[in-house]
């Protein structure tokens, strides 16, 4: 089969946190986005989808308390065709004001999120990309990194996940990869990333770099850049940029711009790289698209059946020549519209490429 992307030699994935499609991209023109005709209720009043007011001011962008997004909360949020977001927030936080509850339904108007909205209007946007599970961060990140959560959906828990990661699969395919992290890498939830696999001489420690190294690495020759890059934001500390409430979304905008500009500044790297920016899950923010049924990735169903996708999140892909505006990103099977399909597609891409590189110059 002919290679559909003969110049594609690098994939960079930036995985942020806890924002729904409607919340971040619902205000853009020509998308299946937010509408004032759709609303939720707290049992006392209705809350329609409206643009976030005064988004230029820091306090308007801060959402506190943090919307819940454990499995029991997401089940409530999805009741009545996604009509339970505000009711769940009011149940968890009965002392919140109507203004606080309205933020669960609000969305950023076009142009408010400069880097994100600029890129979204010039490159491909997937309008039917859902988180893999109607549940919390760890589960959905595990799907993004390995295609399964081994039947577990609750967090926190012991970081003992023994399934093969995408990083190990890339090693098996003789592909190079790196993880750049802001504060600490959640990739270390996976056993093969914490301890490696001694019998196969797999030691991933040399693949890990603080994000501060990313820009300098993009300035080197294209052939020295790894085949696959996974970027984790700064979850804690000074100016967190992961987009997890109550963190300021403008911090994540700076991170998106920094990643994009660093790749774009190297003409040959830009020519050969696919940049994917997405969220692990919706974080309790409203979205009007009802998640579809899906197919469980395995027989591990200890805490959940894994037969329904989670809330819609935004996925954007940036590549030279990918100007195509909106894409439904529909796949052949419903199971292919979540994070596990990205993990699987990356692994297939790695195996399909003919050029093999097992190590990188330091």
Explain what this protein looks like in three dimensions.
This protein is 29% helix and 12% strand. It is of the alpha/beta class and 362 residues long. The chain has one domain: Alkaline Phosphatase, subunit A (3-Layer(aba) Sandwich).
Tally the beta strands: 10
CATH architecture: 3-Layer(aba) Sandwich
Q: What is the count of distinct domains?
A: 1
Morphology: globular
Overall mean pLDDT stands at 88
Alpha carbon gyration radius: 20 Å
The stretches of 5 or more residues where confidence is low (pLDDT under 50) are: 324-336, 351-362
Q: How many strands, what sense, and barrel or not for the largest sheet?
A: 8 strands, mixed
Helix content: 25-40%
Q: Give the CATH level 1 class.
A: Alpha Beta
Order of helices and strands: EHEEHHHHHHEHHEHEHEHHEEEH
Biggest sheet: strand arrangement? 6-5-7-1-8-9-4-10
Distance between the termini: 34 Å
- Assembly state of the chains shown: single chain
Helix count? Answer: 14
Strand content: 5-15%
Instruction: Quickly give the structural class.
Output: alpha/beta
Under CATH, the topology can be stated as Alkaline Phosphatase, subunit A
């Amino acid at each position: 089969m002919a290679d559909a992307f003969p110049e594609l030699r690098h994939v960079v994935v930036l995985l942020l946190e806890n924002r729904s499609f409607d919340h971040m991209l619902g205000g853009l023109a020509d998308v299946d986005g937010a509408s004032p005709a759709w609303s939720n209720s707290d049992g006392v009043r209705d809350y329609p989808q409206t643009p976030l007011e005064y988004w230029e001011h820091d306090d308007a962008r801060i959402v506190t308390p943090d919307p819940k997004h454990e499995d029991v909360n997401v089940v409530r949020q999805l009741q009545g065709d996604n009509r339970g977001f505000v009711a769940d927030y009011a149940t968890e936080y009965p002392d919140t004001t109507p203004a606080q509850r309205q933020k669960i339904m609000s969305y950023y108007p076009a142009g408010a999120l400069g880097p994100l909205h600029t890129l979204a209007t010039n490159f491909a946007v997937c309008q039917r990309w859902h988180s893999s599970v109607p549940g919390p961060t760890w589960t959905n990140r595990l799907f993004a990194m390995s295609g399964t959560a081994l039947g577990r959906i609750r967090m926190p828990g012991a970081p003992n996940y023994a399934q093969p990661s995408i990083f190990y699969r890339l090693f098996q395919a003789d592909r190079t990869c790196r993880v750049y992290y802001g504060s600490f890498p959640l990739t270390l939830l996976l056993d093969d990333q914490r301890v490696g696999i001694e019998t196969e001489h797999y030691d991933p420690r040399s693949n890990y770099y603080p994000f501060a190294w990313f820009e300098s690495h993009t300035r080197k020759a294209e052939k020295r850049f790894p085949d696959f890059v996974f970027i984790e934001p700064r979850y804690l500390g000074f100016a967190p940029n992961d987009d997890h409430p109550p963190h300021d979304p403008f911090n994540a905008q700076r991170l998106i711009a920094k990643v994009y500009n660093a790749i774009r500044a190297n003409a040959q790297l830009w020519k050969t790289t696919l940049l994917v920016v997405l969220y692990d899950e919706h974080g309790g923010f409203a979205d009007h698209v009802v998640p579809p049924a899906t197919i469980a990735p395995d027989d591990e169903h200890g805490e959940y059946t894994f037969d329904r996708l989670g809330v819609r999140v935004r996925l954007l892909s940036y590549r030279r020549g990918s100007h195509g505006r909106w894409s439904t990103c529909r796949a052949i099977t419903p199971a292919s519209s979540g994070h596990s399909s990205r993990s699987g597609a990356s692994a297939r891409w790695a195996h399909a490429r003919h050029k093999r590189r097992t190590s990188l110059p330091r």
